[in-house]
Amino acid sequence: MELKRVVVTGLGALTPLGNDVSSYWDGLVNGVSGAAPITHFDASKFKTQFACEVKGFDPHNHMDRKEARKVDPFVQYAIASTDEAVKDAGLEFDKLDRNRIGVIWGSGIGGLTTFTEEVANFSKGDGTPRFNPFFIPKMLVDIAPGHISMRHGLRGPNFSAVSACASSTNAMIDAFNYIRMGMADIIITGGSEATINEAGIGGFNAMHALSTRNDDPKTASRPFDKDRDGFVSGEGSGAIILESLEHALARGAKIYAEVAGGGMSADAHHITASHPDGLGAKLAMSKAIADANLNYSDIDYINVHGTSTPVGDISETKAIIDLFGEHAYRLNISSTKSMTGHLLGAAGAIEAMASILSVKHDIVPPTINHFTDDPEIDNNLNFTFNKAQKREVNAALSNTFGFGGHNASIIVKKYHS
């Protein structure tokens, strides 16, 4: 069976740096931090009182008030980003076979805002069960691709990938495989997350996973810095239109990049901590490179998972050096989480998008907030600290690793006919 080539034909973004792709990319290239004091709820009693929130988002720009009340914010975010991606790709569904267009979406947690509100309201009552009839369908992780498909009448493959912070990368790899095996012509993929609420911040605080640098939120996300103290929670959505090359060419679509390969693995180590030697990360990256039929030396840029946690940053660095050898020192590496915070299940989508745009524009966005070298990290690596760098980026690899030991890596490269 000859596998089809798969290309990227549309992008949509709703992020802490801006509510469209242009604003998001501009923020990345200019090293802008999206962190600020939390506005979604009163966080004054929480250990962490800041996050990377989406700003100025109005769901009524995408749906009427009645519809907006029926969906959780993570679905509102998904719809907003897919609206932009569909428009960007120039998709005219009436002229296409909707039976061969699918939606494969990622979210690590789904409707946590809805769950928090409904349980809190119940606990305030007298025990009489009074719940919103939309409680369960608002909360379900798989409801996001369901709403997207209903919005456009798309009857192709439709499901969610759930693998914690690797969710949307897993979704993209699934979409890539469905298209290249000829099971769909187009798939809307990506991910969304909306967990900046009492349960989300409180839960991660209880794990000691979040930075508590309340006096200086904008510099709190410090991947690879000696004084990093945890990740910064982020929210938003990224949508990517994947399409078979032949289908894209037939309809005259613009092409951002080609998806080259994907790799997945498990650490089989711990419920939250990555393997200390990065064995799972190394395996996922090596599988992606093999799937793409590339050499290690063909990779120019790695958008790393790089969450700003003490253990995770070290293990990922070890994996890169162990896998790439001397070529590791010729790579550009950056963690865009230093600017966006950690979007959990949506991280893979917006970071793959950063990789796609890096390939398109030959610019590597920076890792901001680096102040002090960590003696446990090889700082001869080019982490693209504090300022974007121009270089030819023919192939970029994007890593996402999730609680439970889920690892996923995806590779995009310049499109050549």
Task: Describe the model.
The chain is of the alpha/beta class and 417 residues long. It is 32% helix and 18% strand. It has 13 helices and 14 strands. The strands form three sheets. The protein has a ten-stranded mixed β-sheet with strand order 5-4-6-7-1-8-14-13-9-10, with helices on both faces. Strand 13 (395-402) and strand 14 (406-413) form a beta hairpin. The longest helix is centred in the N-terminal third of the chain and has 17 residues, at 73-89. It starts with 5 loop residues before the first strand and ends with a strand. 57% of the residues are buried.
Please name the defining characteristics of this protein.
single chain, alpha/beta, ten-stranded mixed beta sheet, two-stranded antiparallel sheet
Q: Brief overview, please?
A:
Helix content is 32%, strand content 18%. It is an alpha/beta fold.
**Mean pLDDT figure:** 97
- Kindly report how far apart the N and C termini lie: 21 Å
Number of strands: 14
Biggest β-sheet: strands ordered side by side in the sheet: 5-4-6-7-1-8-14-13-9-10
Major sheet characteristics: 10 strands, mixed
Helix-strand topology string: EHEEHHEHHHEHEHEHEHEHEHHEEEE
- The number of helical elements comes to 13
Overall form: globular
User: What is the share of helical residues?
Assistant: 25-40%
Range of strand content: 15-25%
Outline the fold blueprint.
Blueprint: E1 6-14, H1 21-29, E2 36-37, E3 50-51, H2 65-69, H3 73-89, E4 101-106, H4 112-123, H5 135-139, H6 143-152, E5 158-161, H7 167-180, E6 186-193, H8 198-206, E7 236-244, H9 245-250, E8 257-266, H10 279-291, E9 301-303, H11 310-324, E10 332-334, H12 337-340, H13 347-361, E11 363-364, E12 389-390, E13 395-402, E14 406-413
Parallel strand pairs: 4-5, 4-6, 9-10, 9-13
Antiparallel strand pairs: 1-7, 1-8, 2-3, 6-7, 8-14, 11-12, 13-14
Helix pairs in contact: 3-6, 7-13, 10-11
